[in-house]
Amino acid sequence: MRVRAALLLACLTGCAHTEAAPPPPRPMQSVPDAGPAVEPRADLDALRAEAKKLLETQSELYWKNWTTGAPIDVAATYQGHDALFSLHTIAAVQAAEAKEPDLVKRRALTDFELYLAGEHIASAVAPLSDQVSNIEGAATVSFDGAEVPYRNIEPTLANEPDHARRVALQDAAAPVLARLTPLLAQKQAESEKQVRALGYPSYEALAARMRDADLDALAKQAEAVLSGTEALYTKAMADAVHRELSLDLKDMRRADIPRFFHSSAVQSAFPADQMMPRFTQLLAEMGIDLAKLKITIDARDLPHKNPRAVCFPIVVPTDVRLSIKPAGGVDDYAQLYHEGGHALHFASTTTPVWEFQQLGNATVTESYAFLFEDRLEDPAYLAELGMTGELLKGYVRSAAVKKLYMLRRYAAKVLFEEAWHGPNPLHGDALKAKYRELLTRAYGFPLTDVDADRYLVDHDDFFYSADYLRAWFLAAQLDADLAKKFGATWWHSPKAGETLRALWASGNQLTAEEVAQQLGDAGLDEKPLLARLQQRLQ
Q1: What DSSP letter does each residue of 197-231 carry, written as one string?
Q2: Phi then psi for 385, rounded to 5 degrees?
Q3: How much is the pLDDT for 479?
Q4: CATH topology for 267-395+467-537?
Q5: What's the pLDDT score for residue 21?
Q6: Quick one: pLDDT at residue 510?
Q7: Residue 317: cis peptide before it, omega within 30 degrees of 0
């Protein structure tokens, strides 16, 4: 996940192509009762400069919180910027957007408008967001006579060989969830209040613009993914869980997932001390010198550092940061390759348009991240790392079922968000029950009461889960296109590196659908990914 300050919403939406037709304008919403625009705030260059500086300040705070666990006070950063995120300013940007004849410039203004709207909401919920971040950063869980940092529960579960102890540790987090849930509920209620103040008829309506997607159509596609993979997944997952965890699928629990993804049988093939050298070598084969890019890599092993790798594009492209906490193993490599894909994208962006550097929808940048992460599921690349014979075949099948698990999980999350924010929204216990129902269906094993209590913790603001689902589709389409042009092991081709750098250079200008069309496809298509997974499972 690429992290941006405040709502952690937007990523870049793609690449430019000088021969492509100008993108169509995106629909705008009117801000009610905003009154006349205040002229000083209508200076777009001044607005951009103020927003850019604020975003850098906030990103620095999130970086320190993520890497060191330092307390965070984003709410304080909004002081003095009330006018920037006011309804008057948003109305002024909308007015400029409506009058802009150049469709590319209008698209940049749309991204800026949506950023301002998002930050208008973020400023309102910042005190609650800070409380959540501070609790997560400082909380510990009492287990087996020791205090486990809340953020270290997942890696602890991954290294715990006993099923019963894993479940017990997961259940021990209940008091932390009890502290987080009311805060998250308040945050959501305030977000929805601010959405209405911005003139949107619903939370989903604003989310659709931020995601640049037809969410109703995506929900139907998500349902098709769940229905179409049910039989394939159930058998493959049952076999994998029995083989790797010695459990029947019906007896598996969410607490077992980190251990399942830990893939203990092949951990020795992914040593911690080879993680960065291997990633660097992969890029070198493509003609990409990581050392020449403005990417700072923090690999310190600090006690309150979030163990998940993350990319912070503080200033694109000159100050891009990557936080890792190397422990070795497949999941650790996957996080590095994924976040490394984000970092490469941002550090290779050359457009001077700030909106196309930092703002917009995340689907396309997520597709670049998944493109690199997917090398760790590719039998040809794995063979190059020294994996052979039955170990290779078994791991490829295991990786495929785990990708199918993730695909189904995010399809269910999209459906959950639709049930929460769609035409007939659910709330409270009914919403928690829907979460439990959908995730049980997606996983193929039941959720416990504590698992179900995660329904707000497992929420992505403004349908961010939709970006992941669509990005998996686009990454598979991009992989297929590179293989067609440069061979199955396209990562050995410097021309493949040139192709990717060309895509990365323009940052956020085209939508995911437009990128797919540049590849020769009609639009985003799940079939290449599903076909590849089915082939690898066999």
Answers
A1: HTT-S-HHHHHHHHHTS-HHHHHHHHHHHHHHHHH
A2: -85, 0
A3: 97
A4: Neurolysin; domain 3 (1.10.1370)
A5: 30
A6: 83
A7: yes
